[in-house]
UniProtKB/TrEMBL annotation:
This is Uncharacterized protein. It comes from the Bacteria.
Length: 217
């Protein structure tokens, strides 16, 4: 009777590991480029077998997962040397249609994919006195996330109530209105990447995953 044994993981020396990593990275980048070329707009990352998160593709949390060569740290290479079947989870890139067919997956709190249209918008809360010039361009919102306009400027000033009593206040001019806050009053901002940041990351994605030769090792 003939018997067969299952293949055992093989150990490799340093030169073998370098060559193996090169091959794995090339295969991973090819898979990512193929999905990107098919119109992927979203990504699923995995921190564990059951810990999956849905992101917009330009999400800053996704960027480290797409730099496949950097992912192969010395620790991962040692594990690969001991077991040539070892792999680092590759993010799944999805079109909007495929992502929309997924239900029950946790959405990223950084990029807010909100495919269902019902997920609460991520908000950052600060006091009005904490507003700085760098907040210009951010969307200010109600506590429930409704937009009050994009911040144009915020200015500390002296105001007066109906009885003429003066007090400190922060005047916030937005694209749709002027709002006056007490210095210690809570202000809610959409905690999302700005449009310019999203555009910059999309351009990097086209450079990284668009058609063209693979980057040199």
């Amino acid at each position: 009777m003939l018997t067969s044994e299952s293949a055992e993981p093989q150990e490799h020396d340093t030169a073998d590991v370098v060559e193996l990593v090169d091959r794995i990275v090339a295969e991973e980048l090819e898979a990512l480029r193929r999905a990107f070329g098919e119109g992927a707009e979203f990504a699923i990352t995995r921190a564990g077998r059951r810990d999956e998160t849905l992101h917009r593709l330009e999400c800053p949390s996704v960027e480290p997962h797409l730099d496949r060569r950097a992912r192969w740290t010395d620790e991962h290479r040692r594990r690969l040397a001991a077991d040539d079947t070892y792999r680092i989870p590759l993010p799944a890139l999805l079109t909007r249609e495929r992502a929309g067919a997924i239900s029950g997956m946790r959405g990223c709190k950084v990029c807010w994919p909100n495919l269902s249209g019902t997920e609460p918008r991520p908000l950052k809360r600060i006091t009005a006195r904490g507003l700085r010039p760098q907040h210009a361009g951010r969307v200010i919102a109600t506590p429930t996330g409704e937009s009050l306009g994009t911040i144009i400027r915020s200015t500390p000033r002296r105001g007066a109530d109906l009885f003429g009593v003066e007090h400190d206040e922060i005047e916030v001019v937005t694209s749709s209105r002027t709002i006056r806050y007490a210095p210690d009053e809570d202000v809610h901002l959409w905690d999302l990447p700005s449009d310019s940041q999203a555009i910059e990351r999309k351009l990097r994605l086209f450079t990284q995953l668009g058609s063209g030769p693979s980057p040199a090792a």
